[in-house]
Amino acid sequence: MIDRVITSGTFSLDGGTWDVDNNVWLVGDAREVVVIDAAHDAAAIAERVGGRAVRAIVCTHAHNDHINAARDLAERTGAPIRLHPADQVLWEQVYGPEVAYEPLGDGDKLTVGGIALQVLHTPGHAPGAVCLYAPDLGALFSGDTLFKGGLGATGRSYSSFETIVDSIKERLLTLPPETVVHTGHGDSTSIGAEAPHLEEWIARGH
What we know:
Blueprint: E1 2-13, E2 16-28, E3 32-36, H1 42-49, E4 53-58, H2 64-67, H3 70-77, E5 81-83, H4 88-95, E6 102-103, E7 109-112, E8 115-121, E9 130-134, E10 139-143, E11 146-147, E12 150-151, H5 161-172, E13 180-183, E14 189-190, H6 191-194, H7 198-204
Parallel strand pairs: 3-4, 4-5, 5-6, 10-13
Antiparallel strand pairs: 1-2, 2-3, 7-8, 8-9, 9-10, 11-12, 13-14
Helix pairs in contact: 1-3
């Protein structure tokens, strides 16, 4: 139902560049999958997909390290790229206007292999950041909004600490505490494990 490919590359914004490892999540069954965050290496992702149909390439946000393999993977698979349009400015930094995507909206539902993925708009790390909630799997794909031990970074352009705190409080901590959180980088966690630390994060501006 859930598979992960870890790819490596760089994240660049505001004139800086950093080495990063990204989690690319595949959700589906033996016939079809959705790819969440096509990062760095389309060939490695396509290899893990194998002979399955890719129904969509979903971008949790448009920072370059989460979308830089999306065009290549879309060309390989014929799948549409999906992104919240509030991240258009970040998308254009990577692809300009020539690569099209289909818009994602809050409350949209994607179905793959009998699994429903609900789109939750969770701005803050980026204006168009989304998480994907799969209630039947008890899983949340959080992109860079929520991590094990902290919330997503907000110190760069187009981000907001106050907004990401509101998103986490209102959209994520209301989910069942046993919900497993599959993050954009690093290890998975759960809503219940992270909820008690929110006030601490707010106090230290994390």
